[in-house]
Fold this sequence. Notes:
The protein is α/β, with parallel strands linked by helices and about 290 residues long. The protein has a single domain (about 5-285), classed as Rossmann fold. It has helices at about 70-75, 135-145, 170-175, 190-195, 220-245, 270-275, 280, and strands at about 5-10, 20-25, 40-45, 45-55, 80-90, 100-105, 105-110, 150-155, 155-160, 180-185, 200-210. The longest helix has 23 residues, at about 220-245. The two termini are about 25 Å apart. The model has no long low-confidence stretch (mean pLDDT about 95).
Amino acid sequence: MPEAKIGVIGGTGLYNIEGMTDIEEVSIDTPFGKPSDSFIVGKLEGTGIAFLSRHGRGHKLSPSELPNKANIYAMKSLGVEHIIASCSAGSFKKEIEPGHLLIPDQVIDRTRLRESTFFGDGIVGHIPFADPFCPVLSDILHESARETGTTVHKGGTFVVMEGPAFSTRAESRLYRSWGADLIGMTTLPEAKLAREAEICYAVIGCVTDYDSWWESAEAITVDVILGIMHHNVDIAKGIIKKSISRIPEKRVCPCPTALQTAFVTSPEAMPEEQKKKLEMIFGKYL
């Protein structure tokens, strides 16, 4: 199994970066089934990178169908310590325009159908999640995005909805009244699972539309979103390439110790089968 320090979860077309070497495709089995797709693993300037297409190549999986636990487990098994994710999002503010980027620092969970934790089945724990995105990695992404020349906003609240339908006008106006900045259908539970796996996680929110709160804005359609998504692929690659050299060798954020105070169940009371299943995620604490 090749090793990678940095994981990238992205949309269609984001599979590698120019200049990568030692590229290979890796299929991984996990206790939670197969990930969304095979991983494209390689090196960039000596750093191992693993790319995963969130929805599978050809975009075969809806947001509610994503095998999130398998995706994060597989990242952990490759040795990933940092995950850079990209996703499409609608904007709740006129100044955050389609084509802009936003690096969020908060999230509101409006999903209903997704498994969002590795805990359970005899192992109880509660991670700190007040600040859901790695502050160090988020700062790196913001600085790198600024250097690409694109318009990027630092900080903001991301509403993650279930989908697959877009928001009603009433829902969109409600979220806007909360002071939220973006809305999308991914990022959760990726961020929660990454925190449980003690992996740093940050997201590049690629703004594709104004959601439905603004009646004079262009109607949200799949072709509009896909058009901006494809445009953003090269921008995202540039941001990732710049970010890699800035990621510190030693992590000084809270992410690598997120589980230190999380466990409620004592190790001797944990089912052996469950301990074995989650050794990759919880190993040093079991």
